[in-house]
Amino acid sequence: MKNRLSKRELDIMEVLWSSEKPLSANDILHAIPDITMNTIQPNLKKLMKKGYIEVSGVGYTKNSITRQFSPLITQATYISRYLDSKAFKDLALFFVDQTSSVEVLDQLQSYIEQKKEELQ
After folding, report:
1. Per-residue CA distances from 113 to 24, 31, 77, 90, 107 (Å)
2. Span 7-75: which CATH code?
3. Which is nearest to 7 in space by CA: 25, 32, 24, 27?
4. pTM for the complete prediction?
5. Which residue spans within 5-102 are E strands per DSSP?
6. Which residues of the chain have pLDDT under 70?
7. HEC profile for 83-101?
8. CA distances from 50 to 42, 64, 108, 116 (A)
9. What is the pLDDT of residues 71-99, one digit of tens each?
């Protein structure tokens, strides 16, 4: 699944990643202002074929039953496929430097301590 996404596939995935629930093609249409259903449908098929999304349910619109889609991988997993260890480290350091939440930093510190114990 090391297939890079096209711009439109990535647009659709970003909508799916940002949603906490499965979305229909119609939901995606409303979330992306400059896209048409004729673009969404074939891209959903491509994303399913590549293994990035799945049909996860059925929904209802005014007059029809629609399939709902959910991502099979996280956004972080997708991005991580294209980063080397130096880029990962730089990104982590940048995140720590930019964050202003003590709670987030505590969570990271806890995770780092746990990982260090696993590695020893």
Report:
1. 41, 40, 22, 19, 10
2. 1.10.10.10
3. 32
4. 0.79
5. 23-24, 53-60, 65-71
6. 1-2
7. CCHHHHHHHHHHHHHHCCC
8. 12, 27, 32, 35
9. 999 999 999 888 888 998 998 899 999 99
